[in-house]
Amino acid sequence: MNRRRTPPAARFARLRSVSGPALRLLAGMVLAAAIVLVLLATTRIEPDALVPVESIEIAGEPRYADVERVRELARRHAPGFITADLAALERSLVAEPWIDGVQLRRQWPGTLVVEVREPVPVARWGEEQLVDRHGRVFGPVDQAEWDYLPALEGQDGRQVVLMRRYLEVSARLADAGLEVAGVAEGRRHDWTIRLESGGRILMGRDAEAARLNALVRAADVVRERRDAPVERWDLRYPHGMAVAWAEEDGDAAGDPGTQ
User: Fold this and answer.
1) How far apart are CA 69 and CA 66, in angstroms?
2) pLDDT tens-place string over residues 99-113
3) How many CA atoms, within 13 angstroms, populate the side-chain half-sphere of residue 255?
4) Which backbone phi and psi does 118 adopt, to 5 degrees?
């Protein structure tokens, strides 16, 4: 079976008919860019003055981020549409409280769109800060709105460790009917579990959460002994625990040898 071959001249004509409009468009764009460059070079017009950023659009519907601060930083780093330093602007914005990330884009002819993504708080930190899902501490904030989050307290840099510890002990103490409100750690890494009931569980220094197994086993027995809330569970004893009820004074009420 013989195939009919298209003559080279016909193939060239077909290619020229298809690529002609695209080539003309590309040539026009190159010419326009060259004219702009020549104008800038001959008239010494600043690019920012020729094509300024006339408006800054905030997207993402931020609730807590300081929108005026976002606009201020945008004007500082992006005075002109062409010369806007978007990388520097992004670095400045993500360093601000309540900004987890941003997306920046130019919108012709003179609009800079700043889409703000706010952090997701997972815990309170100290008295006026929050911890986001990445373990970053930010603030100051009014914590009254976030009182449903667990309260963490400790030295800088320990927030991720304490958040993991909170999750671990919350799951373990749920078996004993105890709800964890937060975790606090001292300078020597002695730590305390704070309960929603107002009680505390003293864990000592670098104690493993596995030590809570004794408390879980003894919880029902302790409740049966007295019809009062437990104020303090002391697990710092190597072979037992001490229990203090709310109405009792003293450092530890109960039998330190209770298993």
Assistant:
1) 5
2) 999 999 999 888 999
3) 7
4) -85, 155
